[in-house]
Every structure is written in structure tokens, then in C-alpha cells.
Amino acid sequence: MISNFTDLGISEDIAKAMDDIGWEEPTPIQKASIPLGLKGTDMFGQAQTGTGKTGAFGTIILQRTEPKQRLPTSIILVPTRELANQVSDQLTDIAKYTGHKSVPIYGGASIEGQMKQLEKGADIIAGTPGRVKDMINRGILNLSKIEIMVLDEADRMLDMGFIEDIEDILKAMPRNRQTLLFSATMSEDVKRLAGDYMIKPKEISVSQDEVVLDLTKQYYIPVGRRNKSWALTRILDIDKPKAIIFCQTKKMVDILDERLTSFRYKVKAIHGDMPQSKRERVLSDFKEDKIEILIATDVAARGLDIDDISYVINYDMPEDIETYIHRIGRTGRAGKEGVAISFVTTEEEYLIREFELRTEMKIEKRDVPEGEEGTKDTIRRVVDYDQLSDVYGMVKFEINLGKNDGLGKVSLAEHLIRAAKIRDFAIGKIELGPESSVVEVHKDFGNRMTMDLPKVKFKNKRVTVKVVQN
To answer: Which residue intervals define the domain DEAD-box RNA helicase Q in the entry (predicted)?
Structure first.
């Protein structure tokens, strides 16, 4: 395995650490950027979280700088506290045999604690612009010996209004340095930043779509809102994945967290309303396999960088391709295959076609997995009339009454109105057969059809009703 990385010019110490982590082969961004970076070339790469870029710039830093120096020799600026911690943790793993020390610096945590870490010595700083600038202004952080500067997720930092902080930080370090910039998009602002602060940079573009989709098997499961929990627990019980589950809202995250916890799944949740310290504990527990399932909103999971997530489950379907790609990018990482499953209601199926066109990849239809015979579902499946209805809200029911019972279409409709209190306007097309008939009834009266109608006999005949699945 080590040779897959040493072929790029990576030292054996770093390659061995990558092997210990479980990385099997370099990702496209690593193949494209590491050989250039090891020559000292400035570069800006188009790549998102999940493409292996931390391993790319981490390798360049570790191989081109000496450990245990008096002052930091490398700094990585990132947009969020979570990403600062994750980048620092991953660099610590890669530096297992080199001796480099990485320290995360970010707001919302004790500045005194971070000062103490710096006093003990730090070769690499992974920090958010606001806290880094604050420490520079206080005279705590000295960047005069920086040899390599990394701007990670540059477009997000500019969107968040960090441009002035970034420029002030860049001015506080030597001009004669190597600068690496990574961004998901190459906007004019990002290009200007590269032009102003980089020396003859090389541009590298690796499509996030290609990287993620090559490693991730994509599926969708048609399932109505009322049966999403049933489908989810079937997958968790049968496939037993280490999974991140995405919901659209904080309320849905909390509801699903409470529901799964009540059934004793090893699950925790994160969203923007939670204190930063709690979010960090949850992410740490997930990374260390103390929990198997993480439920999150898109905002809370932004920048999440954990290599062994086997499944991403879109409990709620995202409405745009960028969010979809970001979500499924949490799996299929570091050369390992992943699985992405999206729960899709009838009215959302057009999104599957749209995403297939945009990514030029097939998203395969999959059924909810079947358990072993005799096993009980953790959550019982219910009839979801919303999912079964057509565009007019009509659902088909098969009834064991027909022409042989002396019924016509009008008399059958009248029986439904009397016996189950179905409103006349809620009854649609009737297909009358000899022994049984199929009747369209509006979804709002579905329970009356299946629960109330069988309670009333027709001419001493027991009536049975079943929903006709599409």
C-alpha cells in the first residue's frame, strides 16, 4: 500500500502513517497536487471537502518543513471551528512518524488554553481567520517564520466576510513563502486573492462530482413521509452501517434523534442551535466509534471530515445538486467505497432525474431491505395514502363486492357513502368486476375505507378492502 503513495514522491514516514490510517491509494487531487507542491510551487486547486485535499496539503507541509522549530512554519486558514479541529487531527495522524505538532486555533473556546498549547510549541497552525488575527494583534502568534500558507475552502471564507482578516494575516507573514489555495468554486474574488498573494500559481481542477461519484454507490428508495422511519430502521438493522443521516430542519433532527434513541440505537445529533462544546463532543464520539449514527443538518455537518462513514442517508431529500454532492461526499473517501441512499416521496422523484442529468451518473432505484423471516420490524410500516395517491389525491382500493352481489357502479358508491361515511365528491372512478371491484377514493378517506367499511356487512357478506399498490 505504501508504494501507492511513495510513487508520488511522498516519504516513507508519511506514507506509512497513511497506511496506518487505512488510506489505500491517492485521490485525484492528491495525484495532481502533491508532486507540484513538493517542488515548492504555488497552486490553487478546485476541490471540496471529501476529495482528500487535507492529505494533499498535509503531505506537502510535513515533507517540506522541519519539525520542532521555535516558531510555527506552516498555517492553514479554514472557515469553521469544526474544520480547524478536523484538519489539525488529520495532520496529527499523518505526522505520526515525522514529529510535527499541529495546534487548532478558533473562536468560541478559551484563548488562554490555546495560548498554553502554543507555548508548548507548534509547527502547524490550523485556525479560523478571526481568532488567528486576534492572536497576531495580541502578540501571541508570531508568523514571521511561516514557510507554507494554506487557504482551505477559500470561497466559503470570502462568503463569510473574512477577506479583510485574511489579507491582514497574509501581510503578517513572509512574502517568500509557498501558498496553496483550495476552493470549491473559482469565483472572481477567489482568483483575485490568488493573483494578489501567490507567485506564478499553477491551477488544478478536480471535479468534486467525479471524485465522489466514482467511489459512492448511489441509490434512491421511493417511500412516503409516514414510512421513512420504518425504512430507516430496516436499513440500520439489516445493513448495520456507520451512517450520517441528513435532515432538512433542526426540528426533524431532534425528532429523529429522540425516536431512534428510544429504540436504543447508538445515535446522537448535531445542529446549529447546540453549543459548540456539545457539537465537538458528538463529533469526537462519532469519530471514535462510540456512536454509530449521526443525525445532522447541512449547516452543522459542513466540513465534516471523517473517513470511515459507510452510509450517507438523505432522510429528507435536498433540493439542489450542490447540497446533494456535499452530503454524499461524507462517504466514499480515502479510496474506500461508500453508499448514499435517498428517501424520495412521489412528488420528489423529479429531483432524481435532475441530479442524474447534472452528474451524468445513474442513481439506482432500490427497495427497502428485507429482514430474515420471522423477525419483527423495529418500527411498523403504515399505509401512507400521500405516497399512494395520484396527482389528484386519489387512491385505489379493491373491494370483494361486484356484479355477482347485485351491485352496479351507482349502488356500490351508495354503499360506501352509507357504510363508511365516504363523501360523494371523494369517490372517483369505479371498475366493477364480477367478484370484486376497484374504486378510487380520495386519500383523506383512506382510513374509513380500510377500517370502517369492513365493519358493515353487505347482505350478510363480510366485506374486505385492500389498498392497490401502484
So the answer is: 3-31
